[in-house]
Amino acid sequence: MPALLFLAAHLVLPLFGMPAVFHPSLRALPFSARIAAAFAAGAVGLTLEATLFSIVGVRWSAVSLSIPLLAASFVLSTQWAGRRSPIAPPLPSARRGVVAAAVLAGGLALLHLGLSLATARATSTDFLLFWGVKGARFAVARGIDVELLDSAFSHHLVADYPPLVPIVSSWSTLWAGEVPWRFAPLLTALWFLAAVPVVAVFLRRHLSPDYATAVAAFWTVALAISLVRSTSGGNAEGPLLFFESAALAALLAERRQDRDTSRFFPALALSGAALTKVEGSLAVVLIVAGVALRDFLERRPRPLSRLLPLAAAPLVALTVWFAFQATHGLPVGYRTHGELLGLHFQYLTPVLAGMARYLDAGTAWLSWLLPLVFLTASARRIRAELLPALLLVAGLLLFLVFDYLHDRNDPSIRIGWTLPRVSQPGLSALILAAGLVASFRSPSYGTDSSRPAFR
Amino acid sequence: MRARAQTVLLLVESFVLLFFPLRQWIRVAPREALAAPATPLDRTDGAAARQWLFLRQARTTVPPGATYTVVAPTRDVEMNLFMMSLGLLPEARGLPSSYYEVPTPEIGSQARYVLAYENAPASGRVRLRAVFAEGQVYERQAAQN
After folding, report:
1. Residue contact B100–A156, C-beta within 8 A
2. What ipTM describes this predicted complex?
3. For residues A235 and A455, what is the distance between their CA atoms, to the nearest angstrom?
4. Beta carbon pairs, A and B, within 8 Å
5. H-type alpha helices, A207-338
6. What is the pTM of this model?
7. How far is B35 from chain A (nearest CA, A)?
8. Three-state SS at A319
9. Residue in A135, A211, A370 closest to B13 by CB
10. How far apart are CA A260 and CA A146, in angstroms?
11. CB pair distance less than 8 Å for B43 and A119
12. Fewer C-beta within 10 Å: chain A N or C terminus?
């Protein structure tokens, strides 16, 4: 029973984020992608609300957290549903054979992920050491548990980490009465499942329906296998992968000549990423920088004013978290990993060797190599359009080298623990970039003026 | 034609990737493959799974609001148990007997309940409250709560 209630609490999140379903920029998307957007909006909305409650001292309960969100959701949904959205012809479908093959491959990968999580083959240890712990304790404290985070024995709880995952877990624990420890890791599959239609639909804006379907299938298979390989069940990797991939896919789908394409959804997803993990903020910086550079190099219209919501939304979200820290006497910001430039270059070789070894993604490196080979073979066609994705891949990997070089001792063991999971957004970005290169080859569906315009 | 070939190639590559999980599942005995786990760590960390099982049973002995500590034969196991106990006993208050292998007996000795993993000795005047395959739970006689 607690497991069912825990699941039900997650399934309620789209109700909180229902305005996303009616937002004019998303209304033309398939229902599955709009529900996924509502899921993202619900999780972000809940996190902001719960953090604000803890700032002002309002106790959390299933009712106290629900009522303001449902009211706001109703009002915004009504307003946005009344707004006109540009008429967009439906996206053409892929051929049946391609869809069948993609569904089979993606379905098998999801089955592998689901079974691995359900049978405790992919549970993250961090889920039991701090992600789930925070969720359980916050639910008992009916708010963000300052006593726990401020305790002399909380170093392992990484108190500075942003609050989205513990808050969503705590919300579900309020429903269930307890954390269903064996079941909860399975919800990583739910976050991943939410990402699939979003990635697929945005790919179709750029690529022919057949090719977009094939890229989405490869993305699904590679990342599902990687989530199992990296034992990401129950930790923050599933949500982070969802938010970062969704934001990136939406931004890559923007067309050069677009003047007014709404950045509501990518801004929302980037806010989710910033509230999920510290690395999420790094991804925000890299993606926003990539978009800025792309828009500038391609002389896209209104680059600065269009960049503003993309940078401002995650910043506001993070400010709420830092405001909580400030108002409760906690150190504000993120804990550094040693001195900024205190690098131990004697470990450069083990770091690079370790990274090469542990980027296997559960597929003997093929998940990385195949898109990399494709990108290399298409090097002459790489354009500024891919910068948001390429900057994320390169920036993330370089950051990880930088981070590992801070270790005073040989970081090989830590690389083995962390790299398979923290590199996953980079793998996602690489696959999306490699997939999109194909659209630059010839005047295909992607550059055809008959392509539907989404605004 | 070229686009079609690319589509087919990508789909083939997707199925090639699936070979790796398939090989993994084939190696598992059919009965074992889908067996429900007793703990979330059954198939990723057997030692931690046993520790988790101990805590899950021990938590029924520790009342809400009570203080407890965890002791184990080695400091690293003790740390692991302490970290997991904070989630498994969210209504109780954990007082570590060591933290990251640094002994903190002055803290742990204040706890009313002692969760002793694998026959680790419990200090002070204690009364045995529960026995499990993985360890025991003691209650300190004249301890503060």
Report:
1. yes
2. 0.93
3. 35
4. 156
5. 209-229, 237-252, 264-276, 278-297, 303-327
6. 0.94
7. 7
8. helix
9. A370
10. 43
11. yes
12. N
